[in-house]
Amino acid sequence: MMMTKAKQLLISLNNRLSKQVLTCLLLSFISLPLLAQEHQIINQLNNVTDVKQDSQGYLWFSGMQGLSRYDGNSVITFNNTNTNWPAPFGWTRSISHYDDKFLVGSETDQVTLFDPITGQSKRININSENNSIDQAIALNNSLYLRGENQLLKHDLSTNQTKVIYSGERILQLIIYQQSVYARLPNGLHKIENDRLIHVIDTDIKTTMSFNNQLVSYKQNNLVVIDGDYQIRNIPFEERIETATTSYDQSRIYVVTDSGMILEVDKQFNVSASKYPNTELVRTKFAYHDSSNVLWLSGNQMVKALSATDLTNHKAILNISDNHNEYTFIGDDLVIGSYGIGLQNYPNKNAVFPDNINETLSSQALRVSNLMHHGEYLYVATFEGLWRYHKTNKSIEKAPIEDNNKLLLKLKHKDNKFYVATNYDGFYVYDINTLSPLAHYHNGNGLYENQVIDVLPIDDKNVWVASLDKINIVDMTNDSIRTLSPNSQNKILDLVHIENKVYAATKGDGVLVFNLQGEQIDQLVPGVDFSGATNINGSVWASSRSGLYQIDVNTNEATLKPNTQQYKFVGTPFYKNNKLYAPHLEGVLEVPVTEQSRFHPNVKISQVNVSGTDQLYSDLIEVSSPKDIITLQLASLDYRRGHKKLYRYRINGGQWNDAGSDALILTGLNSGFYEVELNATNSLGQWSNDHEFININVAYPWYLTPTLRIIYVFVALVIVLYVGWLLHLRRRSLHQITQIMSADLKSRGKTALEIDQLLSQLESKLVTLSQNNPNIEIEELTDLIKMGQQTISNENNDANPRYLYGETLHAGLPYLADYMQKRYDAIVQIDLSFDDAQIDHVVHSDIYKLIHEAITSAVLAKKANMFSVKIHEFNQKLWLTISANSEIFAEYDSRINMNVAMYYIRQIAKKYNAAVNTHLSADNESQLNLSIPLMLLDDLEFQQEENN
């Protein structure tokens, strides 16, 4: 079996430390605290008088402190002095169910209707001078109230109270088959027509409703009243202190005056229960909850008992270190001690003769491992390998060479015997002849000579645990591969199952590998294991904090209930469908059976929003993202076990570890959140139950939903408006493109000029027809000739569309003369700048701009008088074109565009010029451009560089 840390320490310090030092070290290991502690509620509640479990799974305790709710970890107490959790009572006497609420009887405040979900309470007005109510139950719209020496009946519909009994103290009220029964010192009574009728005489210890029967205890008998009111007595030898039904109403748990817990089934068969005996001197009452915990109250304290099917075989030998090895020879348990050799189990059949250890040396008396095979029990000791013959009942040293080493582990598989040593690697022998087959050590590739465990996978591969490393030995070619697991602690035991290898470590949990040597998982990290084995397809691993069962399909590790109180020190072993796990005080027997899994309710037991406490509600309204939300979490499993784990996810995202039972949420942005919560039970298994809570973080006033709708509407209107403007712009640009294309393909400017000439001719003819003496025939003839010349393309060069190498001083007067002759348009020119300072390209572009602007206005018949002024001022060239109409004011539009506007903006963009328009009071318009001369100089420089 597996060597523990204490034993390894002894081995490494062997012959170097004194016995006293070793003893001190061992005592330090033995004094490690238990992982699981008693419920803290034992120290917090005072003089508990009653306990009930609500529909959510919380436990409620009445007593001197008021009414206390327990979630397995924390207590909330309601009373008339608690400002955080107020209630109209102080000392409470009883709790009873009333629909989904509680009726709470109190010492001085009569009866209160209490809602366990919201924590809200309402005092019921009882018309009685007696303020002390020991018990209150409800039936048929009436309350039956047990006072000090009175029985009261309160009608809830009329709010009237009357006394139906005065006399001896009433000990208990119970409802059975729609009737109320009262237990008094003189027997059991049924209440009919507001009168008490005797049912059972003499002293009744306790009464309960069970399996559609009324069960009482009287003078070593169980008195049973069935549905037909037939009474029968069932002998019951033990004296009963108290009793209660199980949570599922399938049995009765009886607490005797000796502290023994007995179980009574529906046929009234009595047997021992799975609960340990109680040490309470006087038990006042008992209660069984949904997690199979039995609660007992007595002597001003509460005790919680968890059911167990474990059997502890206690064996403490007279040695300083009780790290002993155990195994079976036949059906008898034997011990390989750590200091006094082979020992029979105390008070059992003797297997070893009394002189079995006489031939063993002092070192051989220290047994490190036992292995049973055939007729022999092989014994690994500090001084080599020994074997005990079961038939001859004799022990001898195994006939192998160099048999004086400190051995740690013995294994066998397929007629091969594997022996792990502390200083010399491991040996392989033939199991039948003990002839040597192989020896692997540090000299031929093994990582470390101290081999803690050997695991043969098949005839070829052997896994070897050496300190914090694992070697995989290929015995066909003697090759060795070293793995470096995710562990800094010793690897104590290796288990092969389902093509995986499980490695139990001394402090890093259980590591899981595939057969290729890749680590694929780490289970229960931080737990200090002492050994592991394969039992019926599951991995069972023992540790300082309990016994774990690992499901190899899901790799889920489950703590075996009630094993956390034992300090296991070796590898578990199997016999007759039971597991045996050695511990410091003996060996624990555990039935290997399939157990039902308990899925506790997972709850948010308390909510705190920025310092304000409240019980759980399905929606938390938070006024600001700055608020801090604290959710107190609870897994309502009251069994003793490990600390429960909690996880959460928000809006269906990834699961996150909550870290503790208090989940703190802060910095949530405004919006709606759904938080889902889950938890483990006391055995470390995740519950199927999930808890949900919604959190609504308010928006700032400027981001409220109403304003956000308005914002969206306004934004939509703006987008539509901008889209419409862009559509108009695109349409204008499309029209420009069509016009330019049409000009190139058909009419062009020639057609426009002809149209203009014909218009002038039509005007002259109209004037002539009116006998206007100012119109000459020669003028009409000239117009006709000009039209003919235009049509025949003889006058194309006469239209000054371009400068043709001239300057603005030369070209603009010609343009003005042409406009006057051709269109009767007057163009005045005013130029005051130096031509030489401006490149010819700039002259050409400015000329084209002026030509397009004037021609467009003339052909559109919107102006016939223009002035062009160009002058230099403040390092800029200023161009002003004036017209005797509003034509240039329209150039402000970026949506409705024409060809002239397009050319003007392209040229302005080229020279980074500013374009402005102006409309005067007399409807004259101006087009102004300012071109930076520095930019012109830069352009000229770039052109020279390019040339």
TrEMBL record:
The keyword Transmembrane helix applies. The chain crosses the membrane at residues 709-728. Coiled coil: none annotated. The keyword Lipoprotein does not apply. Keywords: Membrane, Transmembrane, Transmembrane helix. This is Ligand-binding sensor domain-containing protein. The lineage of its organism: Bacteria, Pseudomonadati, Pseudomonadota, Gammaproteobacteria, Alteromonadales.
